[in-house]
Amino acid sequence: MTDEHDFSGLKATYLNCTLKKSPELSHTEGLVDASAAIMFKQGVTVEVIRPVDHDIATGVYPDMREHGWATDAWPDIYPQILDSDILVVAGPIWLGDNSSITKKVIERLYALSGMLNDKGQYLFYGRVAGCLITGNEDGIKHCAQNVLYSLQHIGYTIPPNADAGWIGEAGPGPSYLDPGSGGPENDFTNRNTTFMTWNLMHLAKMLKDAGGVPGYGNQRSEWNAGTRFGWENPEYRS
């Protein structure tokens, strides 16, 4: 491994938003494993989490136990996400849309967006994100645009070609890992998964080496204190 491609200082978390609890076979995890294997070979520390295995409450606060829920596993999960340079949200398509678990995870990530980093920026600044989608018929681009928009909105940086996926033919048929599906051998899926994975590593390393996103013009703490970073109210222009 050359220094140019040494990503050994990076950490990545994959959230497999399957509806299936472990140890049930998850076709989404098949694609997650393909991407994670590339990162692992490059020295990235990789963690894969199935949110459905955990009692994550529904809501948009960091700890829903403070808002009427008896239990909430999210406070035990999100520190792992915050400790990672790379986040990949992976999930299946159901009825042409993201799974309910994918949506719940994004809502809980959004719950953290009110927090700030040491520069006064939104908490997820300086981190990169991508997504993996599996399913049948259609919906990869629709699901990916929803996930990637949401992740950039809360502060993640999205690299080029940050999504990949596999879908089967229209109608009932084999899923990604089923015999004869052709999923693991699909060159289009394999290419896009590889490009996404490498672009995540490249951009994560660039941001980490640079100390994150520069802290000027994007600090909510400074805006709240009255700094306007060159913004000029049109009503006062001459």
From TrEMBL:
Molecular-function GO term, any one: oxidoreductase activity
Short name of any one Pfam family annotated for the protein: FMN_red
NADPH-dependent FMN reductase-like domain residues: 22-161
Record-linked Gene3D superfamilies: 3.40.50.360
Name of the protein this chain belongs to: Multimeric flavodoxin WrbA
Lineage: Bacteria, Bacillati, Actinomycetota, Actinomycetes, Propionibacteriales
